[in-house]
Here is the input.
Amino acid sequence: MDLLHLCRNSGCLLLGLLLVCCDDLSDLLPAMDPDASVREIELLVRLKSDWRAVFTYDEYSELLRELARERYTVLPMDSFRITYDSSRILVAMRHDIDCHPFKALEMAEIENAFGLRSTFYILHSAEYYGTCAVAPFVRFLAMSCSYRQLADMAGEIGIHNDLVTMMMQYDIEPLTFQLEEINYYAALDIPIYGSSAHGSAELQDLNLSNRMIYSDFSEYGTFDYGKKIHEYGRYSLEEFGLVYEAYALDYNRYLSDSGGRWFISEDIGPGHHGQLKDVILALQSSEPGDRVQVLTHPVWWGKE
Ligand SMILES: [Zn+2]
Here is the structure.
């Protein structure tokens, strides 16, 4: 009997035991199956990633309580892109869903309770999204209802761009892949306007970034990987079917929970990694006309 069957049959007791015994279960767990149900995918995602949470949902509610005040206008990224208002503090709320779409759903629900909307970027190289174990790339269609559910609660769904990695690891052709991805979401009645670039230590080591795939941010170039030559900077965002890239929007202040610690941009206050109270102080120090981007990663949230 494999671990997934064991987990299904023995429920929370085994899950608790494993979480206590192991820091990272990824090596013990089976790969995701393209025919798996959402319930099975969620079980695996939670086993692999729930233990990583460092912030509680009470803390998230505290942040949202501040942002729900009259002095702020909180917007999804595409709306933020075209909105200017010198009488308010405009806040672009962005979530990069790396490995945990189910925490993203929980965060969207909390936002809805505060009457707030934001943008959730879904990572196409994530284990729950699909596989290239047997080429060509196969999307896990059971996840479609989760994306639709998220779209119903969020203000916007975007693509968490990891195209350079996918080109290297799966030998996918980025332009065709992304246009197919936009069509996939269109079939779910989910319009896509923009992407946010996924960070990766491996790409950094190679002096590459996912933004470089777009000619808007990079000269044309090539690199060798896996005995193959790969191209970047050949096609524009527009040719990739997008209107914007999250990091390139017009904002002057930036708050992020990257790495599970709050980062506060220099001009808002402490200018260093901080705690939630520092983030709230930084927001309170903002003035009408400021444009703030707030980035969270659902995997860091929901600590029990
Ligand atoms: Zn990411």
Notes: Residues 54-300 form a domain with the TIM Barrel fold (CATH 3.20.20.370).
